[in-house]
Amino acid sequence: MLISGFLSKCKTQHRFVGINASDINYSAGRYDILVKPPFDVGFEGIGEVVALGLSASANYTVGQSVAYVRPGAFAEYTVVPAKEAIPVPSMKPEFLTLLVSGTTAYISLKELGKLSEGKTVLVTAAAGGTGQFAVQLSKKAKCHVIGTCSTDEKCAFLKSIGCDRAINYKTENVAAVLKNEYPKGVDVVYESVGGEMYDLAINSLAIKGRLIIIGFISGYQTLTGLPRSHTEMLPAKLLKKSASIRGFFLNHYFSDYQMAMKHLVEMCEKREIVCEVDFGDLSLENKFTGLESVFHAIDYMYMGKNIGKIVVELPHSVNSKL
Predict the structure, then answer these.
(1) How far is CA 195 from CA 11, 175, 191, in A?
(2) What PANTHER family does its record include (predicted)?
């Protein structure tokens, strides 16, 4: 039986859902203060079409693998407008890594980073869900890439995907490394940490350098963003370098989304990029399976344990009737 408004929609049974730093901001009501609990959470999922509205059946088939980006991913099933469903070649969690993390890196570096051969790019949290793509896409643009991370294991991963200089900030002084090894500064910074790392990134910008802010995970849980002291010094720091800071929010760039996603999927299929997935196998709770493990996965992310994109697998259910 069709439910009301279902004619142009797909009902999808989730197999994998992605974890993002912004999950905290959304659930805390910082994206829209008018939204009050209860409300749907989770931003991205990939699953199998189990039912179709009449008009949606012209473009999709039951059993087809699709992905989507919209609130409500943390669920076993969801109903998605057909125009928002993204066909993917197969039910691989690697494709999920592209939906938010991959496209954020792809579009922001292209539109705001203006990468060109020979430039120096600094990626903070480089071994994370989106950092891994910022590293690889910068290398594809023939840039020299520096990546910060928190363990030697992550450093090894970064080197394996082409990072020229991996810095373990737990064992090395990042400011000293940048000052000594890159005295002219860095041309582009892909920044998602905030706090002290943000300040360091500002200080490390080269003449006409560009800093792209995609988040500030260090402040999400405490409601703090950038320290107040930055507001007094920041204009002078930018002025003397003709540098710039740009914020990036994926929702404002959906006109570029389909193109970015198409290119990333092609690169993934051809194995031209690594789409690292972290199911939490090394977490205290073991592999993240089922919706009940979502909060463990978010904690795991905030502890900085993950290498690549954190993904929660949902057990397959045989009950797919409307």
Answers:
(1) 41, 14, 11
(2) PROSTAGLANDIN REDUCTASE 3, SHORT-CHAIN DEHYDROGENASE/REDUCTASE
Tokens read off for 219: 């402040």
Q: What's the first-to-final CA gap in the chain, in angstroms?
A: 7
What does CATH list as the number for 98-251?
Answer: 3.40.50.720
Asked whether 162 and 312 are in contact (CB, 8 A), the reply is: no
* Contact residues for 168 (Cβ-Cβ < 8 A; gap 6+): 149, 150, 151, 152, 154, 155
Q: Which of 190, 138, 184, 145 is nearest to 163 (CA)?
A: 145
**Model pLDDT for residues 40-49, shown as the tens digit of each residue:** 899 999 999 9
CATH top-level class of 9-91+276-313? alpha beta
Length of the chain: 322
In 3D space, the residue among 107, 98, 70 whose CA is nearest the CA of residue 253 turns out to be 107
Q: Which helix (H) or strand (E) holds 206?
A: strand 205-213
Q: What is the pLDDT of residues 188-200, one digit of tens each?
A: 999 999 889 999 9
Instruction: Count the Cβ atoms, other than its own, within 10 Å of residue 289.
Output: 14
> Any idea where the domains of the chain sit in the sequence?
9-91+276-313, 98-251
Helix (H), strand (E) at residue 191: strand 186-191
Cα 139–169–127 angle (5° rounding)? 40
